[in-house]
Write a structure and sequence with these properties.
Length: about 280
């Protein structure tokens, strides 16, 4: 079968610096072609044929996404980057969206279709990106990309570790999370002060949370807001009855509970939370 070849100019990320990285947007442009190719390969491109890249910059990752058998869209808030992409990636015309990913209604782009999300994410909004993906999880079967290493590790961490936290529980309740590889600062322009890490999330199919979702999020966030305390103390603000708080699970600290145990905890709390509303 003849390999699909999209129509676009393929500038070298190392040679072309026509877009200035902007500190207030958290931009660090990836300059290593091999790493860009590896990130593009992290998606399985199954069960969907549409991909959204967040913050493409000068398109070092975009060029490799365009070689896949998928309809690629990019969303970029930087006008200078948008102009660059429109000039150099002709195949993307009509699918370059000059919008803020965190604020834009993605149904205007994808309707109710399934789509994957990928990117070299700005560190300053990376956790907000994950929370929005969780909100849209019914449409996003796969998510991968580059984070600050510490954040990527935290998302994929298991219970019993100090770095395990809110993002770990909430993400792992709905997705299989895998830390893939570490990326050094030297392959970016300008180089960040820390290492980066690439992860992949694959949605759990036919998964039922089996508890009130809003309450589940509240319980997890409230518990980790005072992570050094036992749940008996950290969940005091939920005004739970004393007899419930004597349950053995409330003697644990939040970092000791996996996502399934947080679901069970929410199930125990749910009757009282409903009666208190």
């Amino acid at each position: 079968m003849k390999k699909y070849k999209p129509t676009f100019n393929k500038p070298s990320a190392k040679d072309d610096q026509s877009v200035r990285a902007k500190k207030h947007l958290g931009q660090h442009f990836l300059t290593d072609e091999n790493i860009a190719s590896k990130i593009a390969d992290t998606l399985g491109y199954e069960a969907y044929n549409k991909v959204l890249e967040i913050g493409p910059g000068m398109g070092v990752l975009t060029k490799y996404l365009l070689e896949k058998k998928a309809e690629v869209h990019v969303i970029e808030i930087d006008t200078e980057s948008v102009e660059y992409l429109e000039s150099n990636y002709l195949h993307l015309r009509g699918r370059i969206h000059e919008k803020d990913f965190l604020k834009h209604d993605l149904s205007e782009i994808f309707g109710e279709d399934q789509f994957a999300v990928i990117g070299n994410f700005p560190y300053n909004i990376s956790t907000q990106i994950v929370f929005k993906v969780l909100q849209l999880r019914d449409q996003i079967p796969e998510f991968s990309g580059m984070f600050q290493k510490e954040v990527a590790k935290r998302i994929c961490e298991k219970e019993g570790n100090k770095t395990y936290g809110i993002l770990s529980v909430l993400v792992q309740a709905f997705y299989e999370a895998e830390y893939l590889f570490t990326v050094p600062p030297t392959v970016f322009n300008p180089p960040p002060k820390v290492d980066s890490g690439v992860l992949r999330l694959k949605r759990k199919e036919n998964f039922n949370l089996e508890c009130n979702e809003k309450l589940f999020f509240t319980v997890v966030k409230t518990a980790f807001n005072q992570r050094r305390k036992t749940l008996r103390n950290s969940l005091k603000s939920l005004n739970l009855p004393d007899n419930l708080r004597e349950d053995a699970i409330f003697g644990s600290r939040p970092e000791q509970l996996g996502f399934q145990q947080f679901i069970e905890l929410t199930q125990k709390i749910e009757p009282y939370a409903i009666s208190n509303n």
